[in-house]
Structures are given as structure tokens and as C-alpha cells.
Amino acid sequence: MTNGYGGIIASGIRRSFGSVPAVRNIDFEAPPGEVTALIGPNGSGKTTLLLILASLLAPDAGTLSVGGFDPATNAAAVRRKVGWMPDTLGVWESLKAREILTTVGALYGLSSTAVSHRAAELLAEVSLSEYADSPAGVLSRGQQQRLSLARALIHDPDVLLLDEPASGLDPGSRVALRTMLRRLAGEGKTIVVSSHVLSELDEIADRAVFVNRGESVKSQTLDEAGTQLRRYCIQAEPMGALADALASHGVVFEERGDSRRVEYQVLLSSTEQAAWLLRTLILADVVVTAFAPAGGALEETYMSLDTERQ
Amino acid sequence: MSTDTVEGSRTHSLGYVAGVRTVFGLEMKQRLRGRAWYIMMAVWFLVIGLVFLLATLTTAAMDSAGPFLFDLVVGFVLFFGLLVAPGLSANAINGDRTGGTLAILQVTLLRPGQILWGKWLASWVASLGFLALSSPFIFWALALGGVNPLEAIVSLAVLALELGLVCALGVGISALAGRPLFSIVTTYMMVALLGLGTLIAFGLSMSLVMEEDVQVTQSFYDYPREAIESGRMLTEEDLECLTNQVIMPVWHTERTAWLLAANPFVIVADAVPYDRDSLQSEPDSLGNTYRTPGVMESISAQVRLAQAGPDYEVTCEEAQFFGPGSRDIEKEPLPIWPLGLVLQGGLAAAVLWAGRRRLVTPVRRLARGTRIA
């Protein structure tokens, strides 16, 4: 029976394939109405975790609740609530885009009138209306990806599991995806996005779970990520004046040469501190030409985990 | 509970038949839109046509060309059908798994049985297309006369059933095996096991069912000594039936005939209600009352002899060269083909059942080297 919680709670999830552990110990929570990013390097167990959440794979150990149900005991209830977009684009190449959506809709038990209406709506939403009657095999990778997203949404799921949804999308489609996911989250749906394009997740996600080598290593909200220690890049004309100003205020900086121009990186603990430093530099007549966070908030966490690991 | 009402309004359910129908439709659309099926059909038509044409030419002089040709076509259609059906069915599940589309089906409300039913029915219908394509030849042979239309209908029905059984094997094996190539080869091996393996097993088991030193009454025709010594031309009228008792080994093939029952050729051959009485019907121009039995009819006759087991008393009637000859095999109480269908059906059901277990999600044990998606 449903436990009343519409989101996802997983704790102590373990799964190995033969002797190879894919997921060692993952705790994962995705509340309804938010976009949760699942972040980790290749082979860290993201796809395996999503397969477990999608009720396709049984965990060796751990407790799990997806949309209020346990996939092990009530897979059908979970499937009614979950839309899953795999990282491998399985498309029936000879089927038309519209047919793929209506077929899958029928397999969710939707009536044919409801499903054809819904298919047209979704095709418009992922800008594939003009390809509705093209065989899926002739669509480009990005178009197939959008079709796959529409397919995952056909039964209006409460929980959406997206495995690398943005890879292969052009910038316009990425923006559209972002808008769509934010809207769906606004409607109260639980959304999980796995990716390693971190800059993008910064703008979509409300929270992030970092996994590495099959273990969840950190879980934080974007707000938390924003208040953590962050690196900022500063450039000025000339750089010498900047160096003096930083030194006089006791700010430790590091010269970075990997950019086309020399820049200084400083570690700042908060946005307030950043504002203070910028104001101070300008009042000291340093000609600041660039002052920006070195990377996204999530990238910062990701990199800090990376250094912890080494 | 408030969530229950929300649940209730959103609970879609998928009927069992509706799910099977959708999977079937999905499969058929893909087959009909691909080119492979049509190319295979064209090759099939050419090959069967060629065989039929050659057979027509060679049997043109025969009196009973109709039944002979009919038997030949049925035999060849079965042979080619056994070659085609594994190719049409044995990549049904693992082909989708490789293509990443199986998981998309599994994540819907479909149950494993529905996937198997849909895919099996689709591959069966696809292989029935080949049977339909060969029916002109069957009816042509029928038109030449001498074949009871009931024989034709039964033959087609049993051929269709055989194709369905091989497709079921193929679909089941494709769910079990990781790679399409492996499952197709395995299905061919299974078909070879049924088609040839049963014969080999039957042959090898002969030594196991041999009983030595059995007293048997033998009858045979020979010319009596006085006729030979008379020095005149001997005619058929001089033949005399001699009966004596001999001690000889006998083979209890009735114990091993069931091995042959699992052979697809035996099933098709044995199921047809041959007009065996016509073998001794009207005397032909040479005065012989003998009709050449077709290939399939001979198979059926041989199998029924094997079923009957050793003949402890060969009567004079049975010993005749011409005419009714041999034993009255119609007397054998049970035709063997139902047993064959049960054996093959049992095998197919076992393979499908094992395959179904591989489709159950959430997956606990995953075969080595396979991915869910």
C-alpha cells in the first residue's frame, strides 16, 4: 500500500552484477515538486540506480519507496506512476513518432482517444509535431532523445526518471527541456535527472545527490551549494594592481594560466564575501574586468569531492 | 485515505488480451515495414516453385502424379518451414534487448507473459505467410487428382501447427539467450534435434531393444522344387507360399517408436488421413494393383510398422510382393502424431516457461554480459 509519500526514498541500496558491485551503498531522496540531480562520474552507478528506481532491476539490499510504493512488492503501481527515459535510445525504427507514443500509451492502459490526444500534445511540446509521421529511424539523435522524453511522459507520470536527458540536445532544446522540467516540478512531480553536465544542472536542479563508485557521497540542496566555499576568478587591468590590492587585504590568491589570459582565483565563503571583495577592489581603483564564480555551484562540490577522493 | 481517491482516479489498467494485441501489432508493423520478410518470401516462392517444377517434370509419366507431388510439396514446405521459422522467431526477445526496446516494454504495465504471447503470435503469423505462399503448389498438386481434399486440409493445418511450435521454441530461446546469433543457432539445433536427432536416437536404440533367439513364423514365396526341375518357363502362378518356424532376433521398436513421434516430419506425415486402401485399388495397365506411396505416406507407414513392433507371425498374405502387402498398419490402435504434438508442445512450453522467468522484472539475476537497457 502507498505510504503516502509521492517522492522517492531509497536507503542502503546495494546491487552487484556477478562479482562486480555497481551500487554499493546509495541513500537517495527526491521530494515531490523538486528536481533532484544525480551526479557522478561515468560508471558510478547512476544508471543502475535509475533502473532500480524504475522497477526494472531489483536491489540486492536496501529499502525503497517510489511514488509511495515498493517496486519489489508492487511493481505495477510503481510503473503507473513512473516515467523512465533511458540513456540508451531504444526506438522502434520503423514506427512513426506518433505510433511509438500511442503504442506505449496503450501499454499503460490509456484509451485510444486519450492517448492520441496526449501524443499530439507531447509531440508539440518537444517540437516534433512536423515529424509525427516520420519513421523514428530517420530522426536525428537529438530528435530521438526528445521523442524518448515524450514517451516517458505519455501516461502523465508523477515521478520522472531521466537518464542523461540533455546529452545530444542542441542549446535551444536544452533550454526547452529546462523550462519543461521546471514546469513539471512546479506541478508537484518528482523529477530525477542524472547528468554530468554540471553547469546545466545548476539551473535545473533544486538539490543534488553525488554518487561515486556506487556510493552516495554527498547530498545537498542548491541553496546549500551556493553558500559553500567557492572559487572566483578575477581579472584586472593591470594584473599587478589586483595582486597588490588582494595582498593588502590578506586575500590568498592563486595564479591560473590555463585560460587564454592570466587570471587569479580566490576562495570565498559566501556571496556576501564576494560582494565585499568586489566593492573593495573597485574602491581601491583596481580596474576589474572580470569577476565571476569559477564554475557552477554543483561543479564546485563535484570538484571538491574529486579532490577528497584523491 | 485521501491518497486513495487520487490513486483511484489515476489507476489505468491493461487487460491481458489488450496487452498481447498491442505487442502483436507492434511486432507486425515492424515486420511488414521491413524488407527482410518480403525478400525471404520471394526466395521461398522461387525455391518451392523450382522444386515443384522439377518434380512435375519427373513425374509427368507417372499415373499417380497427384498424390506423389502433393506429398513432395508438403514435405518440402515443412523442410523449408523448419529452416525459416527459427529465423523469424529466435531474435524476438534478445533482439529487442540489444536494441534497447525491450526495457521500454518492460517498464510499462505489460506482464512477461503478454510480451511472449504477442511476440510468439507475431512470429507465427509471419511464418504462416510462407505457408500461404506455398498453398498454390499444394492446390495444384491437389488439382492433378488422386488426393483427398481432406488430406490437403489436414496437411496444411498440421504444417501450420508445426511452424507455430518451432516459433514458440524460437521465442522462448530468444528470451533465454543473450545474443540473437546464439539463440538462432540454438533454435536450429533444436529443430535438427527433432528432425534428425530423433532418427539417430531411434537408430542407435535398436541394439537396446533387440531380443535374440525368438521363435518366429516366417512366410515367403518361392518356386516349388518340382517346378524348377521341370525345366519349363516359370511364371508367377508357380509361386508357392512356404511357412516355417525360425529362431531369429527381433527388434522391439514399439518401445522406441515414441522417439520418432517427436519428429516434425513424422507428425505431419502421420496426421494425414491417407487413403491407404487405394494402394490396392484398380489394377493398372500392367495388371499390377499397386500405387507408389508418396514420401510422407511412406514415412507414416514406416513409423506405424515401428510402432507395431516385431511381427511374430508373417502370414502368406503379408509376404506378397504386390498387392496389399505388408501388415495392416491401419489396425495400430493409436496414431502416433498426437503423442508427437504433446512431446513438442511440452518442449516448447518448457522453453517458454523458462524464458518467461527471464522477463520478470524487477530483475534479480541478470545473465552475464546482458544489460537491461
TrEMBL record, chain A:
<keyword id="KW-0067">ATP-binding</keyword>
<dbReference type="Pfam" id="PF00005">
    <property type="entry name" value="ABC_tran"/>
</dbReference>
<dbReference type="InterPro" id="IPR003439">
    <property type="entry name" value="ABC_transporter-like_ATP-bd"/>
</dbReference>
<dbReference type="GO" id="GO:0005886">
    <property type="term" value="C:plasma membrane"/>
</dbReference>
<feature type="domain" description="ABC transporter">
    <location>
        <begin position="8"/>
        <end position="238"/>
    </location>
</feature>
<dbReference type="GO" id="GO:0046677">
    <property type="term" value="P:response to antibiotic"/>
</dbReference>
<dbReference type="GO" id="GO:0005524">
    <property type="term" value="F:ATP binding"/>
</dbReference>
<keyword id="KW-0046">Antibiotic resistance</keyword>
<keyword id="KW-0547">Nucleotide-binding</keyword>
<comment type="similarity">
    <text>Belongs to the ABC transporter superfamily.</text>
</comment>
<protein>
    <submittedName>
        <fullName>ABC-type multidrug transport system, ATPase component</fullName>
    </submittedName>
</protein>
<dbReference type="InterPro" id="IPR003593">
    <property type="entry name" value="AAA+_ATPase"/>
</dbReference>
<dbReference type="GO" id="GO:0016887">
    <property type="term" value="F:ATP hydrolysis activity"/>
</dbReference>
<dbReference type="InterPro" id="IPR050763">
    <property type="entry name" value="ABC_transporter_ATP-binding"/>
</dbReference>
<dbReference type="InterPro" id="IPR027417">
    <property type="entry name" value="P-loop_NTPase"/>
</dbReference>
<keyword id="KW-0813">Transport</keyword>
TrEMBL record, chain B:
<protein>
    <submittedName>
        <fullName>ABC-type transport system involved in multi-copper enzyme maturation, permease component</fullName>
    </submittedName>
</protein>
<feature type="transmembrane region" description="Helical">
    <location>
        <begin position="68"/>
        <end position="88"/>
    </location>
</feature>
<keyword id="KW-1133">Transmembrane helix</keyword>
<feature type="transmembrane region" description="Helical">
    <location>
        <begin position="188"/>
        <end position="210"/>
    </location>
</feature>
<keyword id="KW-0812">Transmembrane</keyword>
<dbReference type="GO" id="GO:0005886">
    <property type="term" value="C:plasma membrane"/>
</dbReference>
<keyword id="KW-0472">Membrane</keyword>
<dbReference type="GO" id="GO:0140359">
    <property type="term" value="F:ABC-type transporter activity"/>
</dbReference>
<feature type="transmembrane region" description="Helical">
    <location>
        <begin position="153"/>
        <end position="176"/>
    </location>
</feature>
<feature type="transmembrane region" description="Helical">
    <location>
        <begin position="120"/>
        <end position="141"/>
    </location>
</feature>
<feature type="transmembrane region" description="Helical">
    <location>
        <begin position="36"/>
        <end position="62"/>
    </location>
</feature>
<feature type="transmembrane region" description="Helical">
    <location>
        <begin position="336"/>
        <end position="355"/>
    </location>
</feature>
